[in-house]
Specification:
Layout (H helix, E strand, L loop, with lengths): L3 E4 L2 E4 L2 E2 H8 L3 E5 H14 L5 E6 L6 H9 L3 E4 L2 H9 L7 E3 L6 H10 L3 E4 L2 H13 L4 E8 L21 E2 L3 H10 L3 E7 L10 H19 L6 E3 L18 H12 L5 E4 L3 H4 L3 E12 L4 E5 L8 H5 L5 E3 L10 E6 L8 E8 L7 E4 L21 E5 L2 E6 L4 H5 L9
Parallel strand pairs: 4-20, 5-6, 5-13, 6-7, 7-8, 8-9, 9-10, 9-11, 11-12, 12-13, 15-17
Antiparallel strand pairs: 1-2, 2-3, 4-14, 14-15, 14-19, 16-19, 17-18, 20-21
């Protein structure tokens, strides 16, 4: 569910007409709903009620400070994968003991930064990383809390570019070698082994892969405890999918996921961490764009928008689907027509949809990409020297620009011309 609904023939973001935001800020523009963000976070919190747990929002999905602050106010921790994300989390007021540092390529500078500023744990992905954390922590006279990310070789049945739990993926340590690596961790100075980490992919629409992975983690927990390790925390990752196409069978609910967690690992007495990103923010965001031209081609017609692949890369990168709807509600029974929906970037890949059946639209009309909150603005670029798309947060009947669109001068003046030119 989201809070973007038609009201009196116009699309609203909560209690604000989307057209009013476009008029004030310009297009393209990302629009987020506070009510949707909060609702989705609370669904996960309720799903794990009765279990000791922490929900660490996966910041890579959308990392604007206003979004982080909104979730932190609800009690969220943060899952970060870079120094920049770590510093964003701290800037949003999240304390270090609620920040989990993930990622396969943590640099010595990032490890030191997190140890100095406080960190809940490092999710360790390899023996070399483990040894680096040990050396840095020991040199600082401190101890680093760690989990080891195990790769359970589970096919999540998701897009190949976002699968992370198969043996050929770069993530984690093969679960068959986990006991040896935990033994190494226990022998190193500056290391406090607190638990196990697993994450098998993103946009999962079936709970079966989670059940297989978590059952393997439960067995590993018992084995590691028998080896003498104090396994007291299980980081189960994120990955639960969202419905990108309205009318299709919806993915499992957070409540179903919570029941699965209880069934597979609830008996172990561990604190549970989960790291949802897409499900919290995905349906909480729209990308609003204006139609520049309606063009007739050879055997097909095109809607040419002012949004482009640099603003929303998911269709070009992942062949992803986003529902695209007019901001003014079409009349009942309005004739539908197939269009290729494209942007102005000089690449054929700048295509959002092919032969998408749409109601009548004309130059100057506004359209909205639904479910654009996750991996939208955060992956945007200035390709073709197009300024970064702005972001707006709505709360009830008010809205605020939470990232302004740079001017052309601001964008260009970041470059420096050498003195010899």
């Amino acid at each position: 569910m989201d809070h973007f609904l038609y009201r009196d023939g116009a699309l609203f973001a909560e209690d604000v007409p989307v057209a009013d935001i476009a008029a004030a800020v310009g297009t393209p523009v990302y629009v987020y709903s506070t009510a949707t963000l909060v609702r989705h976070f609370r669904l996960f919190d309720e799903a794990l009620a009765g279990m000791d747990h922490l929900i660490c929002y996966a910041m890579k999905a959308a990392s604007n400070l206003a979004i982080l602050k909104t979730l932190a106010r609800e009690g969220a921790g943060m899952d970060v994968v870079s120094a920049g994300e770590y510093l964003r989390a701290k800037a949003a007021g999240v304390p270090g003991d609620r920040i989990v540092f993930s990622g396969v390529g943590k640099t010595p500078a990032e490890i030191r930064l997190a140890l100095e500023g406080g960190v809940r744990q490092f999710n360790v992905e390899s023996e070399p990383e483990l040894e680096a954390i040990s050396a840095i922590a020991a040199s600082m006279g401190t101890t680093a809390p760690i989990t080891i990310r195990v790769n359970p070789d589970v096919d999540a049945k998701t897009h190949a570019k976002i699968a992370t739990g198969k043996s050929e993926n770069k993530f984690g340590i093969p679960i068959a070698r986990a006991r040896d690596v935990y033994a190494l961790a226990a022998s190193l100075p500056g290391i406090d082994v607190v638990g196990i980490d697993v994450h098998i992919g993103s946009q999962l629409t079936d709970l079966a892969p989670f059940e297989t992975a978590y059952s393997k983690v439960a067995d590993l927990t018992e084995a590691l405890r028998a080896d003498g390790h104090d396994i007291r925390r299980l980081d189960l990752g994120g990955g639960l999918g969202i419905p990108y196409t309205r009318g299709n069978e919806p993915p499992p609910l957070p409540s179903d996921y919570g029941d699965l967690v209880r069934r597979t690992v609830g008996h172990l007495g561990c604190e549970i961490e989960i790291e949802p990103g897409r499900l919290i923010v995905g349906n909480a965001g729209l990308l609003v764009s204006e139609v520049i031209y309606v063009k007739s081609g050879e055997g097909r017609d095109f809607l040419i928008l002012d949004a482009a692949m640099n603003d929303l890369i998911r269709p070009a990168m992942y062949e992803a689907h986003h529902d695209i709807v007019p901001v003014i509600e079409p009349a009942p029974g309005a004739e539908q027509h197939p269009f290729d929906v494209v942007g102005p970037v000089c690449e054929t890949g700048d295509t959002f949809a092919r032969q998408r059946v749409m109601p009548p639209v004309a130059a100057g009309d506004l359209v909205a990409f639904r479910s654009a909150g996750a991996y939208g603005a955060v992956m945007a670029s200035e390709y073709n020297s197009r300024p970064l798309v702005p972001e707006v947060l709505v709360d009830g009947d008010k809205f605020a620009v939470i990232r302004a669109r740079p001017t052309f001068d601001e964008m260009i003046n970041r470059d420096t011309i050498p003195e010899w030119l």
